[in-house]
């Protein structure tokens, strides 16, 4: 009986050493998956850490959501923010992995088109997939945050330094009378800064 007890204690010690060794050499990790609209976070940490992983994952998802909806947010700043959250929970040796349908360290956003200014390329109510990036080229369709118009989806027509000229694909001009006065309506054209760009439309 004594030998069995010793064996049992030995087995427990070996298991603890194996578990501890795994996290010592492999490390703790956070895996975040984004599909453009939904976010999931999964943490792999030592069972002895005492960390509330549910709360940790919720904070990571909230930060990721904020990053997706911020024009200046990118994969680097998101990873740094996640590491700060982990450190606040007492985790200082965490590897962060970001994944999405666009690939590793790529952040997607689903954007819903409103209006007909991009017709016939895009239709009112259509959903498009946007890749968060500042690497834009003339001819790209981008989503931007305009001081004058709010969130808009337009085509890049010119790039001058850090300024980007956006135009509508729909070139039709309409007229309407309001209180006897004739008004011309046409698609938006506007300049925005490169930092006002959310990203490039990659699927529609």
UniProtKB/TrEMBL annotation:
<keyword id="KW-0812">Transmembrane</keyword>
<dbReference type="InterPro" id="IPR015927">
    <property type="entry name" value="Peptidase_S24_S26A/B/C"/>
</dbReference>
<dbReference type="GO" id="GO:0003677">
    <property type="term" value="F:DNA binding"/>
</dbReference>
<dbReference type="GO" id="GO:0006508">
    <property type="term" value="P:proteolysis"/>
</dbReference>
<keyword id="KW-0645">Protease</keyword>
<dbReference type="InterPro" id="IPR036286">
    <property type="entry name" value="LexA/Signal_pep-like_sf"/>
</dbReference>
<keyword id="KW-0472">Membrane</keyword>
<feature type="domain" description="Peptidase S24/S26A/S26B/S26C">
    <location>
        <begin position="109"/>
        <end position="180"/>
    </location>
</feature>
<keyword id="KW-0804">Transcription</keyword>
<dbReference type="InterPro" id="IPR019756">
    <property type="entry name" value="Pept_S26A_signal_pept_1_Ser-AS"/>
</dbReference>
<keyword id="KW-0238">DNA-binding</keyword>
<dbReference type="GO" id="GO:0016020">
    <property type="term" value="C:membrane"/>
</dbReference>
<keyword id="KW-0805">Transcription regulation</keyword>
<dbReference type="Pfam" id="PF00717">
    <property type="entry name" value="Peptidase_S24"/>
</dbReference>
<keyword id="KW-1133">Transmembrane helix</keyword>
<dbReference type="GO" id="GO:0004252">
    <property type="term" value="F:serine-type endopeptidase activity"/>
</dbReference>
<keyword id="KW-0378">Hydrolase</keyword>
<protein>
    <submittedName>
        <fullName>Peptidase S24-like</fullName>
    </submittedName>
</protein>
<feature type="transmembrane region" description="Helical">
    <location>
        <begin position="6"/>
        <end position="25"/>
    </location>
</feature>
């Amino acid at each position: 009986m004594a030998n069995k007890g010793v064996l049992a204690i030995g087995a427990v010690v070996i298991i603890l050493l194996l578990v501890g060794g795994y996290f010592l050499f492999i490390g703790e990790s956070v895996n975040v998956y984004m599909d453009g609209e939904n976010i999931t976070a999964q943490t792999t940490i030592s069972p002895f850490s005492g960390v509330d992983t549910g709360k940790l994952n919720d904070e990571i998802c909230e930060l990721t959501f904020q990053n997706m909806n911020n024009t200046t947010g990118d994969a680097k700043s998101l990873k740094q923010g996640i590491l700060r959250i982990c450190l606040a929970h007492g985790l200082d040796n965490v590897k962060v992995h970001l994944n999405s349908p666009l690939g590793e360290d790529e952040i997607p956003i689903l954007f819903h088109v409103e209006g007909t200014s991009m017709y016939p390329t895009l239709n009112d109510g259509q959903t498009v997939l946007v890749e968060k990036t500042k690497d834009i080229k003339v001819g790209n369709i981008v989503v931007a945050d305009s001081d004058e118009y709010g969130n808009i989806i337009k085509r890049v027509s010119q790039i001058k330094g850090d300024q980007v000229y956006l135009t509508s694909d729909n070139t039709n001009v309409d007229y309407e009378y309001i209180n006897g006065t004739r008004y011309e309506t046409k698609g938006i054209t506007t300049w925005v800064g490169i930092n006002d760009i959310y990203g490039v439309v990659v699927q529609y």
